[in-house]
Design goal:
single chain, alpha+beta, N-terminal domain of TfIIb, six-stranded antiparallel β-sheet, 1 helix, FLYWCH-type domain-containing protein
Length: 130
């Protein structure tokens, strides 16, 4: 079993967020490949544009990199961790996944129902002609 110091979460726009072991959240900023075709991901604190209080002056410079399944904070945060926000984002992500699964099931069921309706119409039409 793999021992990681981070978790991936779904965000509202269908992208990924990262939560680290200390209770901080990050958005993916960029990704780079080196000459050995290895990928390193760079992640910024979710409060990089506006701080936790919504003000630009309190924005956070927290930054990290993900390489070889190890997440490392490269620039420290300017605020305390918000574990409750991490829990909330994890919960929201699970709900989004459940809704997507149910939406797919409902679409498949609707398609199956409409296919059955067409089949029964065809059978009825064919039997009415005979």
């Amino acid at each position: 079993m793999e021992n990681r110091n981070y978790n991936f979460l779904d965000n509202e726009k269908g992208g990924l967020m990262l939560s680290d072991a200390n209770g901080y959240l990050y958005w993916k900023h960029s990704e780079k490949r080196n000459t050995r075709d290895e990928t390193r991901g760079y992640w910024r604190c979710i409060y990089c544009k506006e701080g936790p209080n919504g003000e630009k002056e309190s924005s956070c410079k927290g930054y990290g990199s993900l390489f070889d399944n190890i997440f490392k904070v490269t620039t420290n945060h300017t605020h305390e961790p918000y574990e409750d926000v991490v829990v909330l984002k994890e919960f929201e992500g699970r709900i989004r996944q459940m809704l997507r699964r149910n939406q797919i099931r409902m679409q498949c069921a609707a398609r199956a129902c409409s296919t059955r309706a067409v089949e029964s119409d065809l059978r009825f039409g064919l039997s009415a002609k005979n």
